[in-house]
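> example.struct
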């Protein structure tokens, strides 16, 4: 690479383990906090960034509007001694809305609907769970998380989302708000959720609808995306701890199957 070739770095990660990750409950937009393990993971995340040979120096931070994402970012910034950095928060970086599945136990949904449907809802590009309704305990649209979210004219209020729908609400924000900030900041930190990481890498690396099914995102392991001056991907994405990322991603894939034998 010649010296004058511009390179932008995005350090993106899924939040640390949440209390509902720990209990294997579908979470989505339900605003649960980090577990104690999740808080420890966030400290480890910061150490991975500090110890990376690339000497990453993020100068801007993005989070979702959900507590588990914001908590993770706060812990990382404290550890990096960068609590002064500006943070932009958007619902467009929220986890996918899991509709009627929010609050349900994964193994129960697996047993009730079978492996094919369970994995279709969790990982298929077009897999959209049953929509939530006003009276749902965990995901009715009267929930306070729906107040003041910035929707484009005609953009529907999410009541259940597929990965494809996450792509459609994420990419305008990434292209029109995040990319211009990259020009001035060169390296940014995005602390978000599994579905948002999957949505972004699918678009940046043109991952097929079939291949994205098999990609699971571990909690709290920083992933590095490098873009050139035209915001095209340079090389492939990589984790700052590939071995742990692989092990943890496989655990995510197996969630719900712990006691399932058919
Ligand atoms: O429940 C959720 O919101 C997501 C991520 O935690 O779970 P899954 O990985 O099964 O999509």
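> example.seq
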């Amino acid at each position: 690479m010649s010296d004058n070739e511009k390179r932008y770095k995005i350090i993106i990660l899924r939040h640390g383990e949440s209390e509902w990750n720990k209990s294997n409950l579908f979470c989505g937009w339900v605003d649960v906090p980090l577990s104690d393990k999740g808080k420890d993971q966030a400290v480890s995340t910061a150490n991975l960034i500090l110890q990376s040979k690339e000497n990453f120096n993020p100068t801007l931070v993005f989070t979702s509007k959900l507590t588990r994402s914001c908590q993770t970012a706060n812990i990382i910034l404290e550890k990096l001694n960068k609590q002064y950095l500006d943070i932009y928060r958007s619902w467009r970086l929220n986890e996918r809305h899991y509709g009627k599945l929010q609050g349900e136990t994964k193994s129960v949904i697996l047993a009730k609907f079978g492996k094919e449907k369970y994995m279709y809802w969790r990982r298929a590009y077009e897999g959209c769970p049953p929509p939530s309704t006003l009276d749902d305990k965990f995901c009715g649209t009267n929930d306070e998380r729906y107040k003041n979210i910035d929707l484009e004219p005609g953009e529907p209020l999410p009541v259940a989302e597929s990965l494809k729908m996450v792509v459609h609400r994420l990419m305008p924000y990434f292209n029109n708000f995040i990319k211009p900030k990259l020009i001035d900041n060169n390296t940014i930190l995005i602390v978000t959720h599994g579905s948002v990481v999957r949505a972004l890498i699918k678009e940046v690396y043109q991952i097929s609808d079939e291949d994205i099914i098999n990609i699971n995102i571990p909690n709290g392991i920083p992933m590095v995306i490098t873009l050139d001056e035209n915001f095209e991907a340079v090389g492939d994405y990589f984790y700052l701890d590939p071995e742990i990322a692989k092990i943890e991603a496989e655990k995510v894939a197996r969630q719900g199957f712990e006691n399932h034998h058919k």
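> remarks
The domain at 8-23+33-95+163-254 is CATH 3.40.50.1240 (Rossmann fold).
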